[in-house]
Amino acid sequence: MRLTFDAADEAFRADLRAFLDEHCPPEARRGKDFVAADEEGVPDWARAWQATLFDHGWMVPSFPPELGGRNCTPLQTLLYLEELAAQGVVRSVHFGGYAIVGPSLLEFGNEAQRALAAPSIRGDIVWCVGMSEPDAGSDLANLSTRAVADGETFVVNGQKVWTSYAPFADKCFCYVRTGTDPEAPKHKGISVLIIDMDTPGIEVRPLRHITGAVEFAEVFFSDVVVPADRLVGELDNGWRITMGSLAHERGGLWVEGVAGSQRALDGLVALARRKGLDADPTVRRQLAAAYEKVASLRALGYKGFASFAQGSSAPEHSYMKLATSELRKELFDLGLDLLGPYGSVTAPELAEEGGRWWNGFFISLAATIGGGTSEIQRNTVATRVLGLPRG
Ligand SMILES: Cc1cc2nc3c(=O)[nH]c(=O)nc-3n(C[C@H](O)[C@H](O)[C@H](O)COP(=O)(O)OP(=O)(O)OC[C@H]3O[C@@H](n4cnc5c(N)ncnc54)[C@H](O)[C@@H]3O)c2cc1C
């Protein structure tokens, strides 16, 4: 077992630190719990920062330079993700393009579509991903937005919901039903279309988060005409084009969850001290228990990473999204408890730490839903990791 990094990896880390010191704007250093896009769109600093990361090979370091990377190893990717998380640095305020669409186009797109990958990863094209519908969330295969082939075009009708970034996206990576066989299994007959958001017939109705931010929306499609060459991959076979296909980073995707929990815990310790609660035995016990959980999850993440880096599967990682999102919810909830009645003050100029605790609490709730709810994650761990029978 090797518990240290070699000289090449340390040099990699030093290069990254030097780059961040020189280029990272203060707005990007506020951690994920605070940084979001809003109805105003992607702020100028975020556009410039994502482009700078790409141009210097630091956007997705495992990719080649023409895709914003530097061909780095899985271990270097882990170092990269840890360093960003430790410094609270956010790469992008809209992950759809670099984390989902860009890699999916590279894997499944035709030549013209693959050419969209680089500007998507650089953030020049802002994407939304249209999967969820009123009757298709956890059960995504139930989606009913229909695309009917009509000569050289598809005509799309239906509705998406909770579509992040739709209020300001340039394009939608849209999951539609194209199959016509009513006897076919639900997940057959789904296709993916690239739809320009300014196409006539698209109506975006923004939805406000409980935090007040307007980041996602309902999207209605009424006789939206989409050229047939915008089909990604094979007709009726879109189920293969799954969410989160950033395979290069998969082994390290847990890092932000653990680092976010660590940041919340550090904040809680400081808060307890400031409020004179650090000698309270109940609070001390709660903080110690939280410390144990964060440390255990970090160890579990490393254990899974060791398997991943050796080419094996890492079942531990199926558990990390569930565990870290639920833990963050507990930690921010504890922060609100420590604040007592002041926890409910939401005005940034009056609230403790500019509203960090209530804002973080609400965002932590969303994180237990988006990308697969905690119940669905538990089902996955039960059946695929523990081998339990389906309920
Ligand atoms: C912040 C945020 C951003 C999002 N961004 C996007 C986006 O960009 N694009 C997009 O398409 N979607 C997006 N979503 C939607 C997200 O994918 C869905 O909310 C999620 O898949 C759950 O679907 P649902 O809301 O329809 O809930 P449902 O699936 O209706 O679930 C309702 C409740 O039932 C439980 N449940 C459902 N099925 C089971 C089961 N089999 N076993 C046990 N419990 C079950 C769920 O856990 C949940 O508690 C976003 C959501 C959030 C919170």
CATH architecture of the largest domain: Up-down Bundle
Span between termini:
40 Å
Total helical segments = 11
Low-confidence stretches: none
Total domain modules: 3
What is the third-level CATH name, the topology of the largest domain?
Answer: Butyryl-CoA Dehydrogenase, subunit A, domain 3
Radius of gyration: 22 Å
List keywords for this structure.
391 residues; alpha+beta; Butyryl-CoA Dehydrogenase, subunit A, domain 2; Butyryl-CoA Dehydrogenase, subunit A, domain 3; 4-stranded mixed sheet; 4-stranded antiparallel sheet; binds flavin-adenine dinucleotide
Helices, strands, pairings?
Elements: H1 7-23, H2 44-55, H3 74-86, H4 95-108, H5 111-114, H6 117-122, E1 127-130, E2 146-150, E3 153-164, E4 171-177, E5 190-196, E6 202-207, E7 216-227, E8 231-232, H7 254-274, H8 281-309, H9 316-339, H10 356-367, H11 374-385
Parallel strand pairs: 1-4
Antiparallel strand pairs: 2-3, 3-7, 4-5, 5-8, 6-7
Helix pairs in contact: 1-3, 3-7, 7-8, 7-9, 8-9, 9-10, 9-11
The protein binds flavin-adenine dinucleotide.
Give a nutshell description of this structure.
It is built from 11 helices and 8 strands. With 391 residues, it is an alpha+beta fold.
